[in-house]
Amino acid sequence: MSLAAAITARGLGKAYATNAGEPIQALTQVNFEVGVGEFVSIVGPSGCGKTTVMRILAGLVDGYTGSVSVGDRVVRGPTSEIGVVFQDANLMPWRTILANVMLPGQVLRLDKRACEARARELLALVGLIGFEAKLPGELSGGMRQRAAIARALLHDPRILLMDEPFGALDAMTRDNMNVELARIAAEAGKTVFLITHSIAESVFLSDRVLVMSSRPGRIIETIPIDLPRPRSLDVVADPIFAATVLRIRRLLEHSTAANPHVTLAH
Amino acid sequence: MTTQEHLATRDAPSVPSRLFRWRPLPDLALTAILVAGVIGACQAAVAFGIVSRFVIPLPSSVLPALGELVTGGTLGPHILVTVGEAATGFAIAVAIGLTLGTLIAEFRVVERILYPYLVALQTMPKIALAPVLLVWFGFGLGSKIAVAAVISLFPILVNTIAGLKGCDQGRLDVLRALGAGKWDRFRLVKLPNALPFVFSGLSTAVMFALTGALVGEFVGATRGLGYLIVQANSQMNIPQVFAVLLVLCAIGTAAFGLMQLLRRRFLYWSPNEE
Lengths: 266, 274
Hints:
The complex is a heterodimer.
Chain A lengths: L4 E12 L7 E12 L3 E5 L6 H8 L7 E6 L2 E3 L6 E4 L11 H5 L1 H5 L4 H14 L15 H13 L5 E5 L7 H18 L2 E6 L2 H7 L2 E6 L4 E7 L14 H17 L11
Parallel strand pairs in A: 3-8, 3-9, 6-7, 7-8
Antiparallel strand pairs in A: 1-2, 1-4, 4-5, 9-10
Helix pairs in contact in A: 4-5, 7-8
Chain B lengths: L2 H9 L4 H4 L7 H21 L11 H13 L3 H32 L1 H16 L6 H8 L3 H25 L3 H9 L4 H38 L5 H10 L3 H29 L8
């Protein structure tokens, strides 16, 4: 990689204890780098440990082996250089959308005024102008997830971690959110690390796709995506897109013959 | 009636043919009819000697009995005593319940030390403590406040613990990923998240506090609505007993209304609220 590394994962491994006594090896020898400003996805079947990778990077998991570096600093535990978007929007239902987006500022003791100004900018970026005073319960799932993205960006982290952020949305909303995410990532100039089980989503969004296999979870291949940006949804008709999706699909089929949960569909 | 007709009725209420159309009675009217029916039946049953007036008072004698209590000037002070006892007991229970509940939910050590006692206490009917509390705190207000506090403590305590422990892990992860400390996680997520539970505990507890104050007065008192009931009962003044019950009904309703008001103020965001 010629780019400077934003995230470096070296030999990540994680075992979970089970009631049966025999520990389950969720991850083993996971190595990868994400360059500054790069958009990298991990794609893999359900239960392959991709969420565990994300949680280790976010500092939410203890007792793993290997190391994670952000920039050139080894981190254990959460760091403010990373913003996280979870599978569920996880907004606080008692806070208005604006107050939800401003939450990281409160935790990190940032200047309140500056936070509010930035929160309003971000709400504009994610297309939620006019919803500042609404409660999360009044918004659709897609809008809540946009607010969660704005919240993850509030403290201006250099890296955005996303764990199947659109998994709970319907196909149409999901397509639109993917187009939006590509735009937001480009405009905000962030390094993005996305976890997904949708091959098409990973190919559409990423510069590189890491293909994961399960039991134990490991990275079996790194696929560069040579499609020009900005990409519109029409890119699915591009032969390179189709060939790349097929290639990843084959890889996953070979590695998870007994566990064919991976689908092309969004 | 179709929707269109409905709209037409609303838009043009003065159309004569609509005025005489039969409309279904609202539920409230049915409730009123039921109450009137039951009272009427009681009145008849007692007036014709089917039921003794020492079992059920003549309904028409309850309001005069109430009037007598009001004009006699005794009712007001008795109400103040009972409400004061219940409110003080409730306030103590809220303070102890929220503090102890928070400590138990947040600190494993506290939980491990106190939990066995809590389970033991919870399975015991707290009302049984009333005579002991009378001995400990005397015949005055103290023992009634103590009974009210003891029995209203548990719903608050149990719900506070359940609310804090049942916190949504996803929301906590948002704070953890920001490196938030225990205090920030508590004040920014856990506490507001627990409020719906806390409020349902408070709603139960406020009624328990009133019950506690009354039971305390039953056991031994010289003032209060519980004392008034015991007195009237021993004099076979059944209409007065029922008059006091009406007053208690009104106090209970007011307390419930107050809790609902607070709920709406603090839980505007909760989907359980209409």
